[in-house]
Design goal:
heterodimer; A: alpha+beta; Ubiquitin-like (UB roll); DNA polymerase, domain 1; 2 domains; five-stranded mixed β-sheet; 5 strands; elongated; B: alpha+beta; Aldehyde Oxidoreductase, domain 4; Aldehyde Oxidoreductase, domain 3; 3 domains; seven-stranded mixed β-sheet
Chain lengths: 161, 789
């Protein structure tokens, strides 16, 4: 067992991990941050996406000890300081961009990373960027719409409000 | 304009806030102090005889508490099947035992053989490597036709791989054959409805807990129907009476049918927690989900359509082989029969229909309902054969359908396949679809595509589904071993807020929002004053759960029924307080008034009086304001619609791109249009996924070749377009109080034939008229091969 320390959602945390402990397991089991979900074992679904030093990363694909010292942000750290939903979170609610909610944390984290890189993406750019996040409920329609809306673009003309 | 938060409003979902902030509580988020972890050792071969299992080395490894095998379940029953189908010869289906852990033989890759329970999951996994399992591999049978033509027996003791041979309507067979003999034209099509894997994003999880002093068992599980699991597991597998068994399905991350069934892992953790006196948790990896979740579809069908000289449909005949997999999953037998054969009339007046279904055991994962369940299979074959007939006859597929539609004035319509459609207007949905998809402009768009070297095609499909399953006495006659009602308890609290306990279960459908909208509309209080509780057998009345697009049609009706009882009692209290006749009391916007006077009492005045009954007709009425209702539907509901798919095919590569998809649905009345549209979007993605991408494939030895998200092509954001959806052509259901029909499965039912019809249309427009059918998924390779066929 090795002791690792890192900053998660602005707080310094540490814990004992095995070499094989994944960041996703450390967050969920070690820190009790169960908002990060694990939906596959081949790094395909993206439900586990978190930000590591500001970059979107699939937390099931990285060992906890390899991100010692890093700044981690999870879905639990995405709301505004007063607890209200952030612009992206609010856009997902406003446009019904989630149903069962299981892929949602990863979707929100990926969408936030996209908008940080590309503040006004096209529909095609959003679809391409989210290619690594699977959703089985929404058919992606309202997710794409929510991300476009969160970027400040007018989505009222998109078919089938 | 609907009232904010009432019926018809696009109310935002209240459940979203917890899901968007990481505060959802899914089963894997539950960790009970002292819990152990279970790791299942599963068969790596599709068929084999277990010679020996040696657990001694594993049990000596660090952290290991016990390794379980079938010997530990000697007194337990098999996983029960909830539906019995009767064969044409009057004999019941063959129903082999489905043990919790394999007994003597393994019958599919993934069949559980032993389970290591240890202090940590890693310790359990490590020890699993030390369990010695000696299996004599036997020849596997994967192909359905080979299975019933002398292939190896999946279950030696039943002597056949043919589970049942069902004919429907058997009495019509001779008349159907005669109609075919007389037909002016017969169109025949052989097709495969490809096997699919539901893949809700949350893998299955089960946590068992046991309280030694009281004998109380608790199972937390990823289920669509916790009461059904309690009944099946308690009564048939582990012999635990209901009052000592609590089943909780908290936030569940999607189901699509795959979380209806009672699975071995649920019984395992429940039993293991009792044996070990500690909580036991199991979480499926996605790899495990691929080989242990019930799979869907997998039909091989030959369908024939007979037409007279005027192109009226005169008869329909089909023969289907339906894969059951290695064991009968909970509702498997009813999917290819009662949820398939009864839908073969579609939207049409075809007077004579006969279908024969042979259900077959193979060495593959069990197959059961997946979004649509039987109805997509019926719709696909019917809508494909109609399109093929139109092409053979040189008539428009649109007009051939319109000519044969059941007419709006023919409802209620008795079909020749038992069911009676209460309402519908297929002409209206077709017209709406053609308008929304700019069908008139199609030829111009096709010409523009052609300039770019692409072939554009338009595919139309109509669907009918039977939802809100259904009268219990009817389904009982058809072989169901369960009732199919729904329940609700409406508890009005003393200060006027309301808690509803529903037997329905939400795993993405948004019941917490929509059910509250219904109550808000009925009573006139703000929706924020209503809480919806579901998913826990310890506080909800016995309910059958959520599948088959039944929540609002059946569960919502139970809630309306209970709420009407509440309103009736509240009016009696109001009449007493205002010294008026009960008949004169009116409830509007949360206020009780006496007709023709200015007397008024608020909702809270009444609820307080009910719980603080100082001025109350105690001699006539009990205090309190809480009512329970069970609602048993008198018929199915029949959502229907018209779907249009426009594709561009690249003839050089065979690649198909969906350039537009339009859905015009009739769901009857709608409580929350935003949620309804979301349901359609999701269904469309799954249907388009089936048509274009998804395919569950086994090799000849029974190894699953599509066993991960790297091999099984789930639709991704960049595979799909924005959809145009409409539900304005509403003919409300006539037999439930909300006039609702159900919208959860429509998208997955109507879209596959629309996609394939569009691809065939594109190829014909490109001159490839030899292509009459391509099996799903219509991958570039298949399209290219068909072009060059």
């Amino acid at each position: 067992m090795t002791k690792v320390s890192m900053t998660v959602n602005g707080k310094a945390v540490s814990g004992e991990v095995e070499g094989r402990t994944l960041l996703s397991s450390f967050l969920r089991e070690g820190l009790g941050l169960t908002g990060t979900h694990v939906g596959c074992d081949t790094s395909q679904c993206g439900a586990c996406v978190v930000h590591v030093n500001g970059k979107a990363m699939k937390s099931c694909t990285v060992f906890a000890q390899d991100v010692a010292g890093a700044e981690i942000c999870t879905i639990e750290g995405m709301a505004n300081p007063d607890g209200s939903l952030s612009v992206i979170q609010q856009a997902f609610q406003d446009h019904h961009g989630l149903q069962c909610g299981f892929c949602t944390p990863g979707m929100v984290m990926s969408a936030a990373a996209l908008l940080a890189e590309n503040p006004r993406p096209t529909e095609a750019e959003v679809r391409h960027y989210l290619e690594g996040n699977l959703c089985r409920c929404t058919g992606y329609h309202n997710i794409i719409k929510a991300v476009l809306a969160a970027s400040g673009q007018d989505v009222t003309k998109i078919a089938a409000e | 304009m609907p009232k904010d938060g009432g019926i018809g409003a696009r109310t935002k979902r209240r459940e979203d806030v917890r899901f968007l902030t990481g505060k959802g509580r899914y089963t894997d988020d539950i960790n009970i102090r002292g819990q152990l972890h279970a790791h299942f050792i599963r068969s790596q071969v599709a068929h084999g005889r277990i010679r020996k299992i040696d657990t001694r080395d594993a049990e000596a490894m660090p952290g290991v508490v016990k390794v379980f095998t079938s010997a530990d379940f000697a007194g337990a029953g098999g996983l029960p099947c909830g539906w019995q189908v009767t064969s044409r010869d009057g004999k019941p289906m063959l129903e082999p035992k489905h043990p919790v852990l394999a007994e003597g033989k393994v019958r599919h890759v993934g069949d559980p053989i032993a389970v290591v329970v240890a202090e940590t999951l890693d310790q359990a996994r490590d020890a699993a490597e030390a369990v010695v399992i000696d299996i004599e591999e036997l020849p596997a049978v994967i192909d359905m036709k080979a299975a019933v033509q002398g292939g190896p027996l999946v279950h030696d003791e039943i002597g056949s791989n043919l589970c049942y041979d069902w004919g429907f309507v058997e009495e019509n067979k001779a008349a159907v054959d005669e109609a075919f003999a007389r037909a002016a034209h017969v169109t025949t099509l052989e097709l495969v409805n490809n096997r699919l894997i539901a893949n809700p994003m949350e893998p299955r999880v089960a946590v068992g807990d046991y309280e030694d002093h009281s004998g109380m068992h608790t199972l937390y599980t990823t289920s669509q129907n916790p009461h059904v699991i309690r009944l099946l597991m308690g009564a048939f597998v582990l012999s635990i009476p209901e009052h000592k068994l609590r089943v909780v399905a908290p936030d569940v991350g999607g189901g699509f049918g795959s979380k209806i069934y009672h699975y071995a892992e649920e019984a395992f953790v429940t039993k293991a927690a009792q044996v070990l006196k500690r909580p036991v948790k199991w979480t499926a990896s996605r790899s495990e989900a691929f080989i242990s979740d019930a799979q869907g579809r997998d039909h091989i069908t030959r369908i024939e359509l007979a037409l007279d000289a005027d192109h009226n449909f005169t008869a329909l005949r089909c023969e289907t082989y339906a894969n059951m997999g290695a064991y009968l999953s909970t509702f498997a037998p009813c999917i290819p029969t009662w949820l398939h054969g009864t839908l073969l009339a579609g939207n049409y007046r075809t007077p004579l229909i006969y279908t024969n279904v042979k259900a077959v055991f193979t060495n593959t994962v069990p197959v059961d309902a997946y979004r649509g369940a039987g109805r997509p299979e019926a719709t696909f074959q019917l809508e494909r054969v109609i399109d093929k007939a139109a092409r053979e006859l040189g008539v428009s597929p649109v007009e051939l359908r319109r000519k044969n539609f059941i007419k709006p004035d023919q409802f209620p319509y008795q079909t020749p396949v038992a069911v009676v459609y209460d309402t519908g207007n297929y002409h209206a949905t077709l017209d709406k679809l053609l308008e929304l998809s700019d069908y008139k402009g199609f030829e111009a768009r096709a010409a523009e595509s052609k300039k770019r070297g692409k072939l554009r095609g338009f595919g139309l499909a109509h669907y009918i589904e039977a939802c809100g399953i259904a009268p219990s006495n009817l389904v009982g006659q058809l072989g169901a071993r369960a009732g199919l009602y729904e329940s609700a308890t409406v508890r009005v609290n003393a200060t006027g807020s309301i808690t509803v306990f529903t037997g329905s279960h939400s795993h993405g459908q948004g019941h917490e929002t929509t059910f509250a909208q219904v109550i808000s509309e009925m009573i006139g209080i703000d929706a924020s004053q209503v809480e919806i509780v579901h998913g826990d057998t310890s506080n909800t009345p016995m309910g059958m759960g959520t599948y088959g697009s039944r929540s609002l049609a059946v569960g919502g009706s139970a809630m309306v029924k209970a709420t009407n009882k509440i309103i009736n009692k509240a009016k009696k209290i109001a009449a007493h307080l205002m010294e008026a006749s009960e008949a004169d009391i009116e409830l509007k916007d949360g206020k009780f008034t006496v007709a023709g006077t200015d007397k008024e009492k608020s909702w809270v005045d009444i609820t307080l009086a009910a719980y603080v009954p100082h001025n109350y007709p105690l001699e006539d009425m009990e205090p309190g304001l809480e009512e329970t209702a069970f609602y048993d539907p008198s018929n199915f509901t029949y959502p229907a619609g018209a779907y249009g798919c426009e594709v561009e095919v690249d003839p050089e590569t065979g690649k198909v791109e969906i350039v537009a998809f339009t859905a015009a649905d009739d769901f009857g009345n709608v409580v929350n249009p935003m949620i309804v549209e979301g349901q359609v979007h999701g269904g469309l993605a799954q249907g388009i996924g089936q048509a274009m991408l998804e395919n569950c494939v086994y090799d000849e030895n029974g190894q699953l070749l599509s066993g991960s998200f790297m091999d099984y092509a789930m639709p991704r954001a960049d595979d799909l377009p924005f959809y145009r959806v409409d539900h304005s052509c509403a003919t409300p259901c006539t037999h439930n109080p909300l006039g609702v029909k159900g919208c959860g499965e429509a998208g997955a039912i109507g879209s596959p034939p629309a996609v394939v019809n569009a691809v065939i249309d594109a190829l014909h427009r490109g001159g490839f008229t030899h292509v009459t059918h391509i099996d799903m998924p219509v991958s570039p390779a298949r399209v290219w091969q068909a072009i060059h066929g």
